[in-house]
Amino acid sequence: MKPYEIAAEVKPSERQLNWQKTEFYGFINFGLATVVNKEWTDGSVSPVNFCPDEFDAAEWVEFFKDAGFKGMVLNVKHHDGFCLWDSQYTRYSVASATDWDVENRDIVALLSEECKAQGLKFGIAISPLDRREESYGSGEAYNTYFKNLLREVLTKYGDIFYVRFDGAAEPDKNGNVQEYDWLGYYEVVRECQPNAVIALVGPDVRWYGNEWGVIRENEWSVIPERHSIYNAFERSKDTSKRARRKAEKFEIDLGSRKAIKKEKEFIWYPCEVSMSIRDRWYYHKEDEYSAKTKDRLQKIYLQTVGSNCCWMLGVPPMKNGKFAEMDYQILKAFGYDLKRAYNYKVSSIGTITASSSFSDIYKAENLFSEDEFKTWIPADNDKEPELTITLSQKDMFDKIVMQEHIINGQHIEGYEVYIDKGDGKFKKVAEGQVVGYKRIVKITPTEVTRVKIKITSYRGKLEMENVTLY
After folding, report:
1. According to the model, what pLDDT value does residue 350 have?
2. Backbone dihedral region for residue 341 (phi beyond 0: left; psi -120 to 50: alpha; all else: beta)
3. What is the largest CA-CA distance in the chain?
4. Co-location of 378 and 395 in the same domain
5. Among candidate residues 84, 94, 101, 73, the one with its CA nearest the CA of residue 166
6. 301 and 208: one domain?
7. Each residue of 230-240: pLDDT tens digit?
8. Which of 24, 237, 294, 365 counts the highest number of beta carbons within 10 A?
9. pLDDT tens track for 377-417
């Protein structure tokens, strides 16, 4: 078999599928670093200083839902070792934030319960680097301590859809380098939360390589096995910038036929884009100038969720437990526009036909169904299959959403979009390569009577589950 034929047979796990459907989720970094206006602290800041008097879990979750997020990821322990839950293994936690005069200081409990109540997925981020814990740098003793923390936070708070491991590492005060037990950490996650994906330094979800919004135009979920996260083991042993650059290398093409022509083994390793609404992950008042505008967020949404990625956006709370008014208003407006943009299905007043179908079971009409398991497959001998949407009357649209049935793999390598404004002639308005889980094609708002989608290249057995005009 040729490399691209092997790649066409690679399929995602159930946990990867469920994560991909989350699409857009928020990331919260909140703790003692917030209090002292830093990104990293050294573990010397007293928990007594943590006093978010205006924190309200219900308000946080309601805000995230209004912003359009489908999940919330909380950084439960950053590099300073401060835990946002009441742990039996350390007192360097919210339990010791005694100036915060409330009945329950367990932020992980409060947010996870509220997410469940309001229908939002809940996930965690956690760093194995610990600048306070005395056993850090000792090897097995520290790994046991960290796995105890991990098992605790993964078993006390219900279902968790996502676990993000930070890969930061540094020597302890005596120069000893802690060798992280990555496989052991993964085993704990699989044991305690088998449905959770493991991201960043993890085998399920791939980080796209930077925090600046530089995003590939074509993001493949099937890539060569050599790109797996197991190079993280080497990164944890070498804290030099050189090692980090090697492990986080950003390559422009990971999955095209040209890029994989010499490869033999492949994995399903989908991409997550992560960035903050501001320049940094924690709240700093001086960063207000850097807040991304609603229009900027809309463009990033198309470049991420609309380009076969999931998007995790950082939203940092202030030390009083509230979100900055600027961030709040931007995200509320973004969420409102997001719902409005994908509310009216122009294609609902039309019919869809195909140049061919594999059988009556896999007909083109299935693409208008709400059932993701009703799909369209072209005939085997149709090498450039076409779909044509014919509207019952002229109508305006500016977005086409296409989705492959990725439960059976990723296959589309090229597509073209044509429109008919009513004169009976098709004009090409867009073209691209990767579709995958979701491709949103944005065009100038145009009144049309027909839209044609031509699949110009695909590998394996093409299968699509959705085509919608908005």
Report:
1. 93
2. alpha
3. 77
4. yes
5. 73
6. yes
7. 654 554 455 44
8. 24
9. 999 999 999 999 999 999 999 999 999 999 999 999 999 99
Q: Are 356 and 378 in contact (CB under 8 A)?
A: yes
Q: pLDDT exceeding 90 applies to what percent of the chain?
A: 89
Q: Are 176 and 47 contained in the same domain?
A: yes
Residue ending a domain, choose from 286, 313, 341: 341
Cβ neighbours of residue 119 closer than 8 Å, sequence gap 6 or more: 65
Q: What is the pTM of this model?
A: 0.94
Q: What is the DSSP letter of 357?
A: -
**Structural domain boundaries enclosing 394:** 346-469
Is 50 exceeded by the pLDDT of residue 421?
Answer: yes
Q: Which two tokens stand for residue 16?
A: 């990867």
d(C-alpha 139, C-alpha 197), whole Å: 26
Question: Domain end: 311, 341, 371, which one?
Answer: 341
132 and 22 co-located in one domain: yes
Number of Cα atoms under 13 Å in the Cβ half of residue 67: 29
Residues 293 and 376 placed together within one structural domain of the fold: no
- Both tokens of 341, joined, read 């943009």
Q: Same domain for 94 and 186? A: yes
257 and 352: one domain?
A: no
Residue 161: CB partners within 8 Å, gap ≥ 6?
18, 19, 22, 71, 121, 122, 123, 195, 196, 197
pLDDT tens per residue, range 289-336 = 999 999 999 999 999 999 999 999 999 999 999 999 999 999 999 999
